[in-house]
Every structure is written in C-alpha cells, then in structure tokens.
Design brief:
Blueprint (H helix, E strand, L loop, with lengths): L7 H11 L16 H5 L2 H6 L4 E2 L6 H4 L3 E7 L4 H17 L4 E7 L9 H10 L6 E3 L4 H5 L7 E5 L5 E6 L4 H14 L31 E2 L19 E4 L10 E9 L4 E3 L4 E7 L3 E7 L7 E7 L17 E4 L3 E7 L7 E7 L5 E7 L1
Parallel strand pairs: 2-3, 3-4
Antiparallel strand pairs: 1-4, 2-5, 5-6, 7-17, 8-9, 9-10, 9-11, 10-17, 11-16, 12-15, 12-17, 13-14, 13-16
C-alpha cells in the first residue's frame, strides 16, 4: 500500500478495513513513535508554518512549557470532521491548565489549499483553536505523518509522547493529556472524561451497518465505475443511463468531463447514481469554476428521501452547492439496507470529488 502516490486517507481506511473492527471510525491505531520524531524537535517543525488562523504564528519558544496536541486534518474529510467535537472539548476543558490544541490543515484537494476556503470552513465548523496552514505538506512530512486524522501529544519539554492515527481511542487520548499536564506540574487537572456528542456529520459512524467505502469520482483514484463504455479520462462525454448497479458500484448519466481529481457536469441534469449500504452518504462537491451555485436533487430508490435526508438536503431531496466542501446528503432514519442513491444536478458546472459514508 503506497503512501506517497495515493491518498493517505484511502491508505488508512484500507489498512483499518484489513484490521476488521478498526475500520472507519473504530479504535484508532496507536503506534510506536518513529525514533526520528520522538528525538527531534517537533515544535520547531510545527512553528515553521508561515500562515495561521485564529492566532498569531505559534513559535516553538511560545509553546515550551505547554502540553500540545497536534491534529492533522483537512476540512472536507469526514474522518477529520468526526474528530472535531473531541478536539473542541479538550481545548475548552484543559486550556486553563496549559493545553494547546493545534490543527494542522494539510489539504487533499486543490480547493483546500485556498486560505479563504479554509478560513470559511474553520468559522463554519466552530474551530476556535489555532490552525496552521500546511498547504505545501512541509509539517506533514516533518512529522512523517500518513493519515487524516492523526494526533500527536507533545509534553512540556517539547517531546512527542503519544501518537494516535485515525478515529477512536478518545478516552485513552484524554488520559494521555491529563498525565502530561500532571507531569508538567499543573494543578487541579480534571480526572473525568469529557462527555462528547457529535451532531450531524460529526456524529460517529454506524459501523454495524457500514457496507460501503470511500469512492473517488476523479479518474486518478476512481473504482467500481459501472457506466456502459467505461470512464473516459479528460474527455467531454455523454454517458448513457446505467443498466443496473451492483452493490458499491456507481455511474454517471449525461454530459460529464472526468478529470484526475473531479468530474465536472457540462450541462444541467447530469446525474450520479450509486448502490450503497450505509446509514450516511456524503459527497465532496464544489460549485462551478467561477463560483456560481449549483442546485441539486437527491433521490433514494427513485423517491424523495423524506426522513432519510441529510443536513444538506430537505425532505424533497433539494439542496445547493455553494462552496467546495463535504455535503451530507443522506442519513437513513429507517433500517439500513441496500439502496440506490441518485443525485441530479439541476444546473451545469458542478464538480464532484468523492463519496464517503458513515
């Protein structure tokens, strides 16, 4: 499983799926620290970031004596979003005892390199702790990181003492925070575990009924594409309706150009259809190249979603792509079963990147 030439997020999920119960929101992988990282100066690598949100630049000397949690994330990643309630809770609960939570925003898609997009997302997500913009992946490489989300726990002496990769093990991670604060001589460190309840897309995945996995639309990582005639890279093409879809296969209908990172609809009424098995379905979507909104309509088994709509759709399945981000389109209220999901874009120009599930 290559780390450098394919999505780190896909690599992590593949690794967790092979591990069984760790898949997609199960217990995080807690691994031994690389010698180079444990012995190096991670705060110096972190402070090399030139651009910060919510704070002036955080320098190594400013963080000495503090306990620091470094979280690698990217704002369109569902796994990163489901970790945010814990990070917000830790920051609020332990800030007065000397904890500093720092989000290192390392982008996957091109639109996530735009500081204005990240700034908008940070505000919308209620992220009030410092965020370092790692658009050139320099901090990611300095930490030898390989996944979103990833957590590094740094003691008051500037040493990485604990590492967790992926979702889960949050109680264990909070115990690490408490110990590092106590070791630093902080008084009255709370010993209870924060009560955290994620809402909307930030709610934990329903692992018992999760039978569909992350699926990219751009041809660089696309899989299980089932439109007749196959996918035509970098070429405007009118795709015919699918003849029927097996579980976890998907198709395009209408006028599309599939690029390496996303597919763009060339006309109104372009559709994407996917047979899924999951409580939640999300898509990373962007508006037109010049930023115009795109209206869409979602159907499940050919009908409006009703109570099964996500936070970004209504009961009739209607919604609008106004900014490049992840959209929650389905949250099934009824028992989870194999269902055919369809999204029709009522305006041309949408950019479709990836499906994720929960």
């Amino acid at each position: 499983m290559a780390l450098l030439h394919t999505s780190r997020r896909r690599w992590l999920k593949t690794a967790l799926l092979l591990a069984g119960p760790l898949a997609l929101g199960g217990t995080a992988v807690v691994s031994a620290l690389p010698f180079s990282l444990a012995q190096a100066a991670p705060l110096r690598a972190l402070s090399a970031s030139p651009d910060w949100l919510n704070t002036p630049p955080q320098r190594a000397e400013d963080l000495r004596g503090k306990v620091v949690v470094v979280n690698f994330w990217t704002y369109s990643c569902i796994n990163s979003l489901r970790a945010l309630p814990y990070l917000r809770a830790w920051s609020a609960k332990y800030r007065d005892q000397g904890l500093v939570v720092i989000g290192v925003h390392t982008p996957e898609f091109a639109f996530e390199r735009d500081p204005a997009n990240v700034r908008q997302a940070v505000k919308a997500l209620g992220v009030d702790f410092p965020v370092a913009l790692d658009s050139d992946w320099r901090t990611w490489r300095a930490f030898d990181n390989n996944a979103w989300p990833a957590f590094y726990f740094i003691d008051a002496e500037g040493r990485v003492r604990h590492q967790a990769i992926g979702e889960g093990s949050y109680d264990q991670s909070e115990r690490v925070i408490q110990k590092l604060l106590t070791d630093a001589g902080k008084a009255s460190v709370p010993t209870d575990i924060a009560a955290v309840a994620g809402v909307g897309p930030e709610a934990p995945a329903d692992l018992d009924d999760l039978g569909s996995g992350e699926t990219y639309v751009g041809y660089a990582q696309a899989s299980n594409f089932a439109s007749p005639g196959g996918l035509k890279p970098d070429r405007r093409q009118v795709y015919p309706p699918p003849r029927g879809l097996a579980l976890n296969s998907w198709s395009l209908t209408g006028d599309w150009t599939v690029g390496s990172e996303f597919a763009a609809a060339g006309a109104a009424s372009g559709r994407i259809t996917y047979r899924i098995h999951a409580r939640d379905l999300h898509m990373v979507l962007g508006p037109t190249a010049d930023g115009r909104p795109v209206r869409f309509r979602v159907r499940i088994d050919g009908a409006p979603p009703g109570a099964d709509h996500g936070v970004d759709t209504d009961g009739q399945g209607l919604g609008v792509v106004q900014a490049p981000r992840m959209y929650q389109l389905v949250r099934q209220a009824r028992p989870v079963a194999d269902r055919v999901f369809e999204i029709e874009f009522l305006d041309p120009g949408v950019r479709a990147y990836v499906f994720t599930f929960g």
